Amino acid sequence: MSAQGAPHRSVRPDLKPLTLAVATALPLLFVPMHGHAQSPTPTQADEATGTGPVKSLGVVEIRASQPTSLPVQIPASVEGVDAGTIARTINATDSEDALKYLPSLLVRKRYIGDYNHAILSSRASGTGNSARSAVYGDGVLLSNFLGNGVGGLSFPPRWGLVTPEEIERVDVMYGPYSAAYPGNSVGAVVDYTTRMPTRFEAHAQVGWTHQPFKLYNTNTSYDTWQASAALGNQVGDAQWYLNVNRTDSEGQPLTFATRLVSSGTAGSAGTPVTGAVLDRDNQNRPWQIIGTGTQYHTVQDHLKFKLAYRLTPTLRAAYTFGLWQNTAEGYPASYLRDASGNTVSSGVVNIDGRSYGALTGGDFALTREKLTHTMHGLSLKSRTLGEFDWEAAASLYDYGRDQKRQNAASNTLATAHSGGAGTIADGAGTGWDNLALKGIWRPQGVGGAHIVEGGVQQERYQLSYKTANVTGNWLSDGAGAQTSDVGGETRLRSLWAQDVWSLAPDWKTVLGLRGERWQADQGRTLFLNGSSTDHAARQETHWSPKAALSWQAASDTVLKAAVGRALRMPTVAELYGATASTNAQFINDANLRPERSVTGELSLEQQLDDGSLRLTWFHESTRDAIYSQTLFDSAANRNISRVQNVGRVATQGVESVWYGQGIALRGLDLQASVTYADSLIKENAGFVSTAGDTLGKHQPNVARWRVTALASYRWNADWTSTLAVRHSGQQFRTLNNADVNGQTYQGVSPFTVADLRVRWQIDRELSAAFGIDNLMNQTYWNFHPYPQRSTSVQLKYDLR
User: Are 212 and 789 in contact (CB under 8 A)?
Assistant: First the structure.
């Protein structure tokens, strides 16, 4: 669809843009960069520690001495960055920032410490599909597969359980090509490996970020302070590491109170007000922006403790404890003023001779949140590098406290600051746990014809979410009458095996199979109005084959192909977690079918004199994709908007990636990536407004074009400067692509933003960094506005 919203003329794939994507990127062949996850040989440090990805015959081999979710042999495209690259080139205030310049990835981070909307998107999965990617930290699951996306409940990865300063490296595997992962790997698998010291070390860091923000009638500045400290040591066979972090963040306004001009009535009724801003909504309809809805002030504390002990020369035990707590306050503000200059936030108002429905606490909602989450990870790992090794790992993530308070719609902004009616939502008792047993068999020893991996896994997700009224003081009183209780449990038991087989000196294949038994039970959707349902238990069994083939066509050239089937099972919230019993933002469906995807890629990997090149064509066909849409309910004789299956979504595209070092100038590193994706809805019985209005339209939140480019220059041993550019092309938020205006609240806009970073190594232990994100101060949107120009300063001490 064009930028003006012209209809798509054909549902057939348009191959011209695919050719254009390659042709456009070809000039970048001469501007690659080092630090690539797929370096052809390990560094000496990697050989000594057993860490770091290694590319051989197009199959990435992971040799990690620390806990990691990645299998030993990965048959797919892999990218990554290490701690040194992050420190030199990225203004990293949260762990997800480490992914900022990796190909095809975008995290919908709206402000520093964004805990409820920062969702990862990948080649063929948008920022509303958090359940289509898997994020791990030291092998512990951080992705929140209790639900998918955002809405009444939000399910981004728990990024706060990893801080930027503790990251040793992060690797990303694109696609569901390893049998070691569930169907949630269909988009990407992200694995953070954090520090484990080999001698005593101490770290401390302080940072400040300043964002002047001007939009509609908001014109002010927001500041964020961060501080962290870490200690670690190795004593004999024991290693320990302790990291603490505090973030005190003020974000820009994220939501806005609005009134469509067409909803107003001409006349003199209501209080005459000024201050409203006339704009157009995402469908280009005139509307009035009458104030801000949510501006967060959040204070977050992070504590991570890791202990590892070598029980024998070949057996290692490790334990990880993580604590994350968050106190967040959401503030609204009315733009409206009466004739005396007083703020107006309630009652019927009159704007430019038209009266509009009464303003309520729903327009200007105050919120208070208190969350305390913990995670535990325990592993026991054999590493003999002989004929057989094994690993056992268990993890637990627990919502110890998860409470959100909000003033009621009947409680206006003028009175809500001091109390009045409201609601409490409580997610305590929610969480997930995982258990995995894994073996690696090398029947002919290291370097033999086969390396066989296999294992069994269990993943269990439990949702419990209760809401209740507060009739007295919503800020402090306990819960009153319960209004809803939704929850349930899903369980996934898996058996998998994968064989890396060297067919011939220049050929290698990876064959895998994953079997899964999925169960859903204890589902309940109960509401005060008498709408209550106890859902029947479900059970399904599925098999997902995987295959990859690589050919070392020349000493510096690898060709490879991969294909994999993945089933993304419905989450607990999609099955049971409604936010209302009638048409609302999110209504569950206990009979959802799993998403069934077949994904493939063809890649050329070329080592250059000063870098590397990768060209990848990818394709994905997904049946029964899960989205919220409308369908006619014959039993109720009306349209129902709810979570439903979309018949088929097809995506194909090209990803081009270059890395190089010192090509144009000694000390200059450059990297670039270009991704083109054509993602269309091919079949769908549901609709948004009218039957058939989604057919041939673009999948929501999947941009046609994504581009990253980064130049980093080492002036000398102490000074480094980096300039980076991120571009995302046109995309839509709705299934029928009716949101043709992306440059507004609730729109999704194209953007091109530049980031700057300068780092100074003051002495052996002390360093400082100065950065600017969104250098040109572009205003851009993904439903909410992204940050405007943000300046950051960091001071760091490292004793090693």
Answer: yes
Task: State pTM to two decimals.
Answer: 0.90
pLDDT of 190: 95
Range 278-306 burial, b when 16+ CB lie within 10 A, else e: ebebbbeeebbbbbbbbbbbbebbbebeb
Assign 3-state DSSP to the chain and report helix, strand, coil percentages, each to 5.
5, 55, 35
For residue 569, give both structure tokens: 């099972």
Query: Which ranges constitute the DSSP H helices of 489-569?
Result: none
Nearest one of 698, 708, 701 to 784, comparing CA atoms: 701
234-250 as b/e, with b when 16 or more CB fall inside 10 Å? beeeebbbbbbbebbbb
**DSSP category for residue 44:** H
Q: Which amino acid is located at 162 in the chain?
A: V
- Over residues 523-575, the pLDDT tens digits come to 998 887 666 688 899 999 999 999 999 999 999 999 999 999 999 999 999 99
3-state secondary structure of 321: strand
Pairing status of strand 668-683 against strand 784-785: unpaired
Q: Which residue is it, tokens 């993890």?
A: 395
Q: Comparing 196-205, 310-319, 349-358, 579-588, which segment has the lowest mean pLDDT? A: 579-588
Domains of the chain: 16-799 (2.40.170.20)
Q: Alpha-carbon distance 362 to 408, whole Å?
A: 7
DSSP H helices, 383-542, are 413-416
From CA 231, how far away is CA 201, in angstroms rounded? 6
Is residue 18 helix, strand or coil?
Answer: helix
Give per-residue pLDDT as tens, 121-140: 999 999 989 999 999 999 89
